[in-house]
Design goal:
Blueprint: H1 7-13, H2 16-32, H3 36-42, E1 47-56, E2 62-71, E3 79-85, H4 91-107, E4 113-119, H5 128-142, E5 151-155, H6 161-175, H7 196-215, E6 223-227, H8 233-242, E7 246-252, E8 255-258, H9 265-275, E9 286-288, H10 290-294, E10 300-303, E11 322-325, H11 333-341, E12 345-347, H12 349-352, H13 355-369, H14 375-400, H15 404-423
Helix pairs in contact: 2-4, 2-15, 4-15, 5-6, 7-8, 7-13, 7-14, 13-14, 14-15
Glutamic acid binds near residues 156 and 356.
Length: about 425
């Protein structure tokens, strides 16, 4: 089916991560039984924007930053997805992540397709002024391709509320009036939604809770390990801690901390707030590497760092019973195969981390309606959406005897396929 894609474009995004997304899709397409034109359409993104951003640095020199925005499918509505600032950003990564956003939005029954973008840079080495200039230049160059009815960016790795505020301001200045609905994940003061910041991590924990119910486990009795202590892992760890669960290890890029009796999560957050990372935290914990953390004996492993963490190299060594994918693409296809053989269940990313984009959808709806909901209302609506999607995935997996990842993809593909078939091909 490769002939469906312009060869030059395909070369650019045909990276290992895109292959991972494609292999998952091809396997799910065999199970989903959709028309051939649907399969062809979904194997490649609709549009990819490649930019080269000139930015003046604090020392007066100019630097060039490669940047991308990939829109995978607009059949269900405007495309939606985050913007990441990371040295690994390339077209293939954005294309894979955009495809996963299509499945995520479709699975949650949000009226969106998938997109993802990013700037190749090391955000930790950049000043606030440099980050602001990169973001504003990116937004200005992207302006013809984004819009509240077209493509709506949001935070992702190393971007945050401030990044979204700069994007919203740049777009609004060009329009001549405030356009809060152009991005989600903004500060509440300019039209952001309550509970958006916590939404991804809270959604992960809602899925873990639901899985425990189905497996007849008591969450409070489980030992949990969380890889990643940022927007997703940090919040998930807090939500788990608040429920009285025992989080025995967490990590960030500086390494991990381990305490078999359970970590004091609020103290760890206080340390990160003061020092920027977990580095230097020694009190009552054993310092471990990220590699060791993944292989600790535990009940539930939450992967909330980045892609490609559980692979053919380490899946055989994992000592957990259940994995929850808070990050996008943290398990490689070979990793998946080994985990399946070993009977370790995986709550897949497109379900487990969908809390973020779901509250992004609520934020966009509130912005468009100029009417804002309280925190309890948003939390309740999120819980309803997450448990509805969770039940559909779990039931399909049980009924058809397929992996949860395949069940989630099949459910998502059916949503997109129904829309593609109903709309037909233009002209
Ligand atoms: N970047 C997040 C994700 O991967 C959120 C996207 C959004 O809110 O649009 O799901």
């Amino acid at each position: 089916m490769a002939e469906a894609v312009h060869p030059a474009m395909q070369l650019e995004w045909d990276t290992p991560l895109y292959q991972q997304a494609l292999t998952q899709l091809d396997h799910a397409l065999e199970l989903a039984e959709v028309p051939d034109f649907v399969a062809k359409r979904l194997r490649a993104p609709e549009r990819a924007v490649i930019l080269n951003l000139p930015v003046k640095m604090d020392d007066g020199a100019y630097s060039m930053f490669p940047a991308y925005r990939v829109q995978h499918s607009s059949v269900l509505g405007p495309t939606k997805g985050g913007v990441r600032y990371d040295l690994a950003v390339d077209l293939g990564e954005c294309a894979a992540l955009a495809m996963w956003m299509t499945w995520k939005c479709a699975l949650l029954r949000l009226p969106y397709g998938g997109a993802k973008g990013g700037v190749r840079c090391n955000a930790r080495d950049l000043s606030l002024g440099e980050l602001s200039r990169i973001t504003r230049r990116f937004t200005a160059e992207l302006a013809p391709f984004i819009g509240p009815e077209l493509d709506i960016p949001a935070p992702d790795m190393a971007t945050n509320e401030q990044t979204m505020a700069w994007m919203m301001d740049t777009y609004s200045m060009q329009k001549g009036y405030a356009v809060p609905e152009i991005v989600t994940g903004k500060p509440v003061s300019i039209g952001g939604s309550l509970f958006r910041h916590e939404a991804t991590g809270a959604g992960v924990v809602m899925c873990v809770e639901r899985a425990c119910e189905r497996l007849e486990w008591t969450l409070a009795e489980q030992r949990l390990v969380v890889q990643g202590f940022g927007n997703v892992g940090g919040i998930a760890a807090t939500e788990l801690h608040d429920r009285g669960s025992r989080v025995i290890a967490v990590s960030d890029i500086s390494g991990g901390v381990f305490a078999p009796e359970g970590l004091d999560i609020p103290t760890l957050h206080a340390h990160v707030a003061e020092h920027g990372s977990l580095e230097g935290f020694e009190r009552g914990v054993e310092r471990i590497t990220n590699e060791t953390l993944l292989e600790l004996e535990c009940d539930i492993l939450v992967l909330a760092a980045r892609e490609d963490q559980v692979t053919g190299a380490n899946a055989g060594n994992l000592r957990c019973k259940l994995i929850a994918e808070g990050a996008n693409g943290p398990t490689s296809n070979e990793g998946d195969r080994i985990l399946a053989e070993r009977g370790i269940r995986v709550l897949p990313d497109i379900l487990t981390n969908a809390g973020g984009v779901t509250v992004s959808y609520f934020e966009w709806v509130q912005d468009l309606g100029r009417l804002f909901w309280d925190r309890d209302e948003i939390r309740r609506r999120l819980a309803d959406k997450m448990s509805d999607a969770f039940d559909r995935v779990w039931n399909v997996s049980e009924e058809r005897g397929i992996l949860l990842r395949d069940a989630a993809l099949v459910a998502a593909i059916h949503e997109v396929s129904a829309a593609l078939e109903a709309r037909g091909l233009y002209p």
